[in-house]
Amino acid sequence: MGTDVSQFEATVAETIGASDRKAVALATGGAALHVAALIAGLGPGDEVIVPSMCHLSNVQAILATGAQPVFCDVDDETLCIDPHRIDELIGPHTRAIMALDYGCYVCDHDAIGALAAAHGLRVIHDAAHSFGSSSNGRGIGTFTDICMFSFDPVKCLTAVDAGVLMLADEDEQRFARQIRILGSDQPPEVMYKNARTWDYDAVRVGYRYHLSNIHAALGISQVAKLPRIRANRQSACTRYAERLQGYDSIRAPFNCFSDMTPFLYFIRVPAELRDGLRAALKDEGIDTGLHWRPAHIHTYFTQFHRGPLPVSEAAGSDVISLPLHSAPMSDEVIDRVCDTIVKFLR
Ligand SMILES: Cc1ncc(COP(=O)(O)O)c(C=O)c1O
Protein backbone atom coordinates (compact mmCIF):
# COMPACT_ATOMS: atom_id res chain seq x y z
CA MET A 1 0.00 0.00 0.00
CA GLY A 2 1.57 3.28 -1.10
CA THR A 3 1.41 6.16 -3.54
CA ASP A 4 -0.91 4.50 -6.02
CA VAL A 5 -3.44 3.70 -3.31
CA SER A 6 -3.76 7.32 -2.28
CA GLN A 7 -4.02 8.31 -5.93
CA PHE A 8 -6.71 5.69 -6.51
CA GLU A 9 -8.68 7.02 -3.54
CA ALA A 10 -8.40 10.59 -4.81
CA THR A 11 -9.39 9.51 -8.33
CA VAL A 12 -12.48 7.64 -7.10
CA ALA A 13 -13.61 10.57 -4.95
CA GLU A 14 -13.07 13.07 -7.76
CA THR A 15 -14.77 10.92 -10.39
CA ILE A 16 -17.98 10.58 -8.39
CA GLY A 17 -17.92 14.26 -7.40
CA ALA A 18 -17.46 13.77 -3.64
CA SER A 19 -16.93 17.09 -1.86
CA ASP A 20 -17.62 16.37 1.83
CA ARG A 21 -16.18 12.85 2.13
CA LYS A 22 -13.15 10.75 1.37
CA ALA A 23 -12.48 7.37 -0.17
CA VAL A 24 -10.71 4.70 1.86
CA ALA A 25 -9.44 1.80 -0.27
CA LEU A 26 -9.57 -1.80 0.88
CA ALA A 27 -8.61 -5.17 -0.54
CA THR A 28 -12.11 -6.19 -1.71
CA GLY A 29 -15.70 -5.04 -1.59
CA GLY A 30 -16.39 -7.82 0.90
CA ALA A 31 -13.67 -6.49 3.19
CA ALA A 32 -15.12 -3.00 2.79
CA LEU A 33 -18.56 -4.26 3.83
CA HIS A 34 -17.09 -5.88 6.94
CA VAL A 35 -15.36 -2.63 7.86
CA ALA A 36 -18.59 -0.73 7.13
CA ALA A 37 -20.43 -3.01 9.54
CA LEU A 38 -17.78 -2.32 12.21
CA ILE A 39 -18.03 1.43 11.60
CA ALA A 40 -21.79 1.14 12.11
CA GLY A 41 -20.93 -0.30 15.52
CA LEU A 42 -22.63 -3.63 14.90
CA GLY A 43 -22.13 -6.41 17.40
CA PRO A 44 -23.85 -9.34 19.09
CA GLY A 45 -27.54 -8.71 19.74
CA ASP A 46 -27.88 -6.20 16.91
CA GLU A 47 -30.03 -6.68 13.81
CA VAL A 48 -29.50 -5.36 10.30
CA ILE A 49 -32.27 -5.18 7.72
CA VAL A 50 -30.90 -6.48 4.43
CA PRO A 51 -32.65 -7.52 1.21
CA SER A 52 -32.75 -11.26 0.68
CA MET A 53 -31.79 -10.58 -2.97
CA CYS A 54 -28.21 -9.81 -2.01
CA HIS A 55 -24.64 -10.94 -2.37
CA LEU A 56 -23.40 -13.43 0.22
CA SER A 57 -20.83 -10.88 1.36
CA ASN A 58 -23.64 -8.66 2.65
CA VAL A 59 -24.86 -11.31 5.06
CA GLN A 60 -21.37 -12.49 5.97
CA ALA A 61 -20.25 -8.94 6.80
CA ILE A 62 -23.14 -8.66 9.25
CA LEU A 63 -22.45 -12.10 10.78
CA ALA A 64 -18.72 -11.35 11.11
CA THR A 65 -19.57 -8.68 13.70
CA GLY A 66 -21.83 -11.02 15.69
CA ALA A 67 -24.96 -9.17 14.53
CA GLN A 68 -27.78 -10.90 12.65
CA PRO A 69 -29.50 -10.20 9.33
CA VAL A 70 -33.25 -9.67 9.05
CA PHE A 71 -34.26 -10.39 5.48
CA CYS A 72 -36.45 -7.85 3.72
CA ASP A 73 -38.27 -8.10 0.41
CA VAL A 74 -37.37 -6.16 -2.73
CA ASP A 75 -39.29 -3.99 -5.16
CA ASP A 76 -40.83 -6.02 -7.97
CA GLU A 77 -39.48 -3.78 -10.71
CA THR A 78 -36.02 -2.79 -9.50
CA LEU A 79 -35.15 -5.76 -7.24
CA CYS A 80 -33.68 -3.20 -4.83
CA ILE A 81 -34.80 -3.26 -1.18
CA ASP A 82 -38.45 -2.18 -0.93
CA PRO A 83 -38.64 0.79 1.47
CA HIS A 84 -42.31 -0.02 2.15
CA ARG A 85 -41.29 -3.35 3.68
CA ILE A 86 -38.52 -1.97 5.89
CA ASP A 87 -40.70 -0.25 8.50
CA GLU A 88 -42.42 -3.42 9.66
CA LEU A 89 -39.04 -5.08 10.31
CA ILE A 90 -37.62 -2.32 12.50
CA GLY A 91 -37.53 -3.43 16.14
CA PRO A 92 -35.67 -2.64 19.35
CA HIS A 93 -32.51 -4.41 18.16
CA THR A 94 -32.33 -2.87 14.69
CA ARG A 95 -29.11 -0.89 14.21
CA ALA A 96 -28.74 -0.52 10.45
CA ILE A 97 -30.24 -0.94 7.00
CA MET A 98 -28.09 -2.45 4.27
CA ALA A 99 -29.29 -1.21 0.89
CA LEU A 100 -27.96 -2.56 -2.42
CA ASP A 101 -28.29 -0.94 -5.79
CA TYR A 102 -29.21 -3.82 -8.09
CA GLY A 103 -28.12 -4.38 -11.68
CA CYS A 104 -29.12 -1.26 -13.59
CA TYR A 105 -31.19 0.40 -10.85
CA VAL A 106 -30.43 2.37 -7.73
CA CYS A 107 -32.44 2.12 -4.51
CA ASP A 108 -34.92 4.73 -3.36
CA HIS A 109 -32.21 6.32 -1.25
CA ASP A 110 -34.37 9.24 -0.15
CA ALA A 111 -36.97 6.92 1.37
CA ILE A 112 -34.32 4.72 2.98
CA GLY A 113 -32.44 7.74 4.37
CA ALA A 114 -35.67 9.17 5.81
CA LEU A 115 -36.54 5.87 7.52
CA ALA A 116 -33.03 5.57 8.94
CA ALA A 117 -33.12 9.14 10.25
CA ALA A 118 -36.54 8.60 11.83
CA HIS A 119 -35.33 5.49 13.69
CA GLY A 120 -31.71 6.48 14.41
CA LEU A 121 -30.25 3.78 12.15
CA ARG A 122 -27.07 3.68 10.07
CA VAL A 123 -27.31 2.96 6.35
CA ILE A 124 -24.69 0.75 4.74
CA HIS A 125 -25.07 1.39 1.04
CA ASP A 126 -23.69 -1.40 -1.13
CA ALA A 127 -22.95 0.34 -4.43
CA ALA A 128 -20.96 -2.54 -5.91
CA HIS A 129 -23.25 -2.37 -8.96
CA SER A 130 -23.51 1.39 -9.31
CA PHE A 131 -20.10 3.05 -9.46
CA GLY A 132 -20.40 5.93 -11.92
CA SER A 133 -24.21 6.08 -11.64
CA SER A 134 -26.36 8.79 -10.12
CA SER A 135 -29.62 9.23 -8.29
CA ASN A 136 -31.67 12.41 -8.73
CA GLY A 137 -28.61 14.22 -10.02
CA ARG A 138 -26.34 13.14 -7.14
CA GLY A 139 -23.35 10.90 -7.82
CA ILE A 140 -23.60 7.52 -6.14
CA GLY A 141 -21.18 7.53 -3.21
CA THR A 142 -21.52 11.26 -2.56
CA PHE A 143 -24.58 11.39 -0.32
CA THR A 144 -25.39 8.15 1.50
CA ASP A 145 -24.22 7.34 5.02
CA ILE A 146 -21.54 4.61 4.56
CA CYS A 147 -21.12 3.73 0.90
CA MET A 148 -19.15 0.82 -0.51
CA PHE A 149 -17.82 0.16 -4.04
CA SER A 150 -16.32 -3.03 -5.42
CA PHE A 151 -13.79 -3.20 -8.24
CA ASP A 152 -13.64 -6.99 -8.46
CA PRO A 153 -12.93 -8.86 -11.70
CA VAL A 154 -16.49 -8.78 -13.05
CA LYS A 155 -17.55 -5.27 -12.12
CA CYS A 156 -18.06 -2.50 -14.73
CA LEU A 157 -14.67 -1.18 -13.68
CA THR A 158 -12.12 -3.55 -12.24
CA ALA A 159 -8.89 -3.28 -10.31
CA VAL A 160 -8.80 -7.11 -10.46
CA ASP A 161 -9.79 -6.74 -6.82
CA ALA A 162 -10.45 -3.68 -4.68
CA GLY A 163 -13.08 -2.19 -2.42
CA VAL A 164 -13.68 1.43 -1.44
CA LEU A 165 -15.61 3.03 1.40
CA MET A 166 -16.84 6.61 1.04
CA LEU A 167 -16.84 8.18 4.50
CA ALA A 168 -17.68 11.72 5.61
CA ASP A 169 -16.63 11.46 9.24
CA GLU A 170 -12.90 11.91 9.92
CA ASP A 171 -12.90 9.57 12.92
CA GLU A 172 -14.54 6.90 10.80
CA GLN A 173 -11.97 7.43 8.04
CA ARG A 174 -9.17 6.96 10.61
CA PHE A 175 -10.90 3.87 12.04
CA ALA A 176 -11.19 2.31 8.56
CA ARG A 177 -7.52 3.09 7.82
CA GLN A 178 -6.41 1.41 11.04
CA ILE A 179 -8.65 -1.59 10.75
CA ARG A 180 -7.53 -2.33 7.18
CA ILE A 181 -3.91 -2.72 8.27
CA LEU A 182 -4.01 -4.99 11.30
CA GLY A 183 -5.39 -2.40 13.69
CA SER A 184 -2.17 -0.41 13.53
CA ASP A 185 -1.74 3.33 13.51
CA GLN A 186 0.64 3.43 10.54
CA PRO A 187 -0.02 6.89 9.14
CA PRO A 188 -1.28 6.75 5.57
CA GLU A 189 0.54 10.04 4.82
CA VAL A 190 3.84 8.18 5.36
CA MET A 191 2.83 4.99 3.54
CA TYR A 192 1.38 7.06 0.72
CA LYS A 193 4.95 8.25 0.03
CA ASN A 194 5.94 4.63 -0.50
CA ALA A 195 7.68 4.74 2.89
CA ARG A 196 7.04 2.55 5.89
CA THR A 197 7.28 3.02 9.61
CA TRP A 198 8.82 0.56 12.05
CA ASP A 199 7.47 1.99 15.29
CA TYR A 200 3.82 1.27 14.54
CA ASP A 201 1.51 0.30 17.32
CA ALA A 202 -1.59 -1.90 17.25
CA VAL A 203 -4.39 0.16 18.73
CA ARG A 204 -7.46 -1.99 17.92
CA VAL A 205 -8.59 -5.25 16.35
CA GLY A 206 -7.75 -5.20 12.65
CA TYR A 207 -7.41 -7.23 9.50
CA ARG A 208 -5.11 -7.56 6.53
CA TYR A 209 -7.55 -5.71 4.30
CA HIS A 210 -5.31 -3.06 2.76
CA LEU A 211 -5.05 -2.57 -1.00
CA SER A 212 -1.80 -3.10 -2.91
CA ASN A 213 -0.28 -0.52 -5.24
CA ILE A 214 -0.60 -2.95 -8.14
CA HIS A 215 -4.37 -3.19 -7.79
CA ALA A 216 -4.64 0.55 -7.20
CA ALA A 217 -2.68 1.28 -10.39
CA LEU A 218 -5.05 -0.94 -12.36
CA GLY A 219 -7.99 0.82 -10.74
CA ILE A 220 -6.68 4.28 -11.69
CA SER A 221 -6.31 3.25 -15.32
CA GLN A 222 -9.81 1.76 -15.38
CA VAL A 223 -11.53 4.74 -13.78
CA ALA A 224 -10.17 6.87 -16.63
CA LYS A 225 -12.19 4.68 -19.01
CA LEU A 226 -15.49 5.26 -17.19
CA PRO A 227 -17.13 7.48 -19.86
CA ARG A 228 -16.43 4.91 -22.58
CA ILE A 229 -17.48 1.98 -20.39
CA ARG A 230 -20.68 3.78 -19.38
CA ALA A 231 -21.56 4.55 -23.00
CA ASN A 232 -20.89 0.97 -24.13
CA ARG A 233 -22.99 -0.55 -21.38
CA GLN A 234 -25.84 1.96 -21.79
CA SER A 235 -25.93 1.29 -25.51
CA ALA A 236 -26.02 -2.51 -25.03
CA CYS A 237 -28.85 -2.20 -22.47
CA THR A 238 -30.80 0.13 -24.76
CA ARG A 239 -30.57 -2.41 -27.58
CA TYR A 240 -31.70 -5.21 -25.27
CA ALA A 241 -34.64 -3.07 -24.15
CA GLU A 242 -35.67 -2.27 -27.74
CA ARG A 243 -35.51 -5.90 -28.78
CA LEU A 244 -37.20 -7.44 -25.71
CA GLN A 245 -40.10 -5.03 -25.28
CA GLY A 246 -43.63 -6.11 -26.14
CA TYR A 247 -43.50 -9.78 -25.12
CA ASP A 248 -45.95 -10.86 -22.42
CA SER A 249 -43.55 -13.45 -21.07
CA ILE A 250 -40.57 -11.12 -20.65
CA ARG A 251 -40.17 -8.51 -17.93
CA ALA A 252 -37.03 -6.41 -18.11
CA PRO A 253 -35.68 -2.93 -17.44
CA PHE A 254 -36.80 -0.89 -20.43
CA ASN A 255 -35.85 2.69 -19.76
CA CYS A 256 -33.59 3.44 -16.84
CA PHE A 257 -30.09 3.69 -18.24
CA SER A 258 -29.38 7.39 -18.73
CA ASP A 259 -28.22 7.96 -15.12
CA MET A 260 -26.57 4.58 -14.82
CA THR A 261 -23.38 2.77 -15.58
CA PRO A 262 -25.42 -0.44 -15.82
CA PHE A 263 -23.83 -3.49 -14.24
CA LEU A 264 -26.39 -6.15 -15.15
CA TYR A 265 -29.09 -6.41 -17.74
CA PHE A 266 -31.58 -8.85 -16.27
CA ILE A 267 -34.84 -10.28 -17.53
CA ARG A 268 -37.59 -12.16 -15.74
CA VAL A 269 -39.44 -14.96 -17.48
CA PRO A 270 -42.01 -17.52 -16.28
CA ALA A 271 -40.20 -19.52 -13.58
CA GLU A 272 -41.04 -22.89 -15.15
CA LEU A 273 -39.25 -21.80 -18.35
CA ARG A 274 -36.19 -20.16 -16.78
CA ASP A 275 -33.82 -23.12 -16.64
CA GLY A 276 -34.86 -24.36 -20.09
CA LEU A 277 -34.22 -20.92 -21.52
CA ARG A 278 -30.77 -20.79 -19.95
CA ALA A 279 -30.01 -24.22 -21.45
CA ALA A 280 -31.23 -23.09 -24.89
CA LEU A 281 -28.99 -20.02 -24.68
CA LYS A 282 -26.07 -22.18 -23.57
CA ASP A 283 -26.63 -24.42 -26.61
CA GLU A 284 -26.09 -21.32 -28.74
CA GLY A 285 -22.87 -20.53 -26.87
CA ILE A 286 -24.54 -17.76 -24.84
CA ASP A 287 -23.69 -17.80 -21.14
CA THR A 288 -26.03 -16.25 -18.60
CA GLY A 289 -25.90 -15.50 -14.87
CA LEU A 290 -28.18 -15.79 -11.86
CA HIS A 291 -28.21 -12.82 -9.50
CA TRP A 292 -29.06 -14.35 -7.11
CA ARG A 293 -30.39 -17.28 -5.18
CA PRO A 294 -32.07 -15.28 -2.40
CA ALA A 295 -30.03 -15.30 0.80
CA HIS A 296 -32.81 -16.67 3.03
CA ILE A 297 -32.81 -20.02 1.21
CA HIS A 298 -29.09 -20.68 1.75
CA THR A 299 -28.65 -23.46 4.30
CA TYR A 300 -26.87 -21.43 6.96
CA PHE A 301 -29.12 -18.42 6.60
CA THR A 302 -32.46 -20.20 7.01
CA GLN A 303 -32.14 -19.66 10.78
CA PHE A 304 -32.44 -15.86 10.58
CA HIS A 305 -35.51 -13.65 10.86
CA ARG A 306 -37.33 -12.43 7.81
CA GLY A 307 -40.39 -10.56 6.70
CA PRO A 308 -42.65 -11.86 3.94
CA LEU A 309 -40.48 -12.38 0.84
CA PRO A 310 -42.80 -13.04 -2.12
CA VAL A 311 -40.90 -10.89 -4.62
CA SER A 312 -37.49 -12.25 -3.61
CA GLU A 313 -38.77 -15.82 -3.89
CA ALA A 314 -40.28 -15.16 -7.32
CA ALA A 315 -37.20 -13.33 -8.59
CA GLY A 316 -34.92 -16.07 -7.27
CA SER A 317 -36.55 -18.51 -9.66
CA ASP A 318 -37.36 -16.30 -12.66
CA VAL A 319 -34.43 -13.91 -13.10
CA ILE A 320 -31.63 -14.28 -15.65
CA SER A 321 -28.68 -11.94 -16.24
CA LEU A 322 -27.84 -11.55 -19.92
CA PRO A 323 -24.35 -11.00 -21.36
CA LEU A 324 -23.17 -7.43 -20.80
CA HIS A 325 -19.64 -6.17 -21.30
CA SER A 326 -17.67 -2.99 -20.79
CA ALA A 327 -16.26 -3.30 -24.31
CA PRO A 328 -18.63 -2.47 -27.19
CA MET A 329 -21.21 -5.16 -27.96
CA SER A 330 -22.42 -5.11 -31.54
CA ASP A 331 -26.11 -5.08 -32.39
CA GLU A 332 -25.58 -8.46 -34.07
CA VAL A 333 -24.36 -10.00 -30.82
CA ILE A 334 -27.26 -8.60 -28.82
CA ASP A 335 -29.78 -9.52 -31.50
CA ARG A 336 -28.51 -13.11 -31.46
CA VAL A 337 -29.15 -13.28 -27.69
CA CYS A 338 -32.61 -11.71 -28.09
CA ASP A 339 -33.57 -13.89 -31.06
CA THR A 340 -32.66 -17.02 -29.10
CA ILE A 341 -34.76 -15.85 -26.14
CA VAL A 342 -37.78 -14.95 -28.25
CA LYS A 343 -37.61 -18.17 -30.29
CA PHE A 344 -37.47 -20.28 -27.13
CA LEU A 345 -40.33 -18.48 -25.40
CA ARG A 346 -42.51 -18.73 -28.53
C1 LIG B 1 -23.77 -6.43 -4.59
C2 LIG B 1 -22.39 -6.92 -4.22
N1 LIG B 1 -21.91 -6.62 -3.02
C3 LIG B 1 -20.68 -7.01 -2.64
C4 LIG B 1 -19.87 -7.72 -3.48
C5 LIG B 1 -18.51 -8.14 -3.00
O1 LIG B 1 -17.51 -7.41 -3.62
P1 LIG B 1 -16.06 -8.05 -3.83
O2 LIG B 1 -16.19 -9.14 -4.87
O3 LIG B 1 -15.22 -6.92 -4.30
O4 LIG B 1 -15.61 -8.60 -2.52
C6 LIG B 1 -20.33 -8.05 -4.75
C7 LIG B 1 -19.48 -8.83 -5.66
O5 LIG B 1 -19.87 -9.41 -6.64
C8 LIG B 1 -21.63 -7.65 -5.14
O6 LIG B 1 -22.14 -7.94 -6.34
From TrEMBL:
GO biological process, one term: polysaccharide biosynthetic process
Gene Ontology molecular-function annotations: pyridoxal phosphate binding; transaminase activity
Residue ranges that the Swiss-Prot or TrEMBL entry lists as coiled coil: none
Gene3D superfamilies the UniProt entry points to: Aspartate Aminotransferase, domain 1, Type I PLP-dependent aspartate aminotransferase-like (Major domain)
Alphabetical list of Pfam families matching this protein: DegT_DnrJ_EryC1
Name under which the protein is recorded: Unannotated protein
Organism: freshwater metagenome
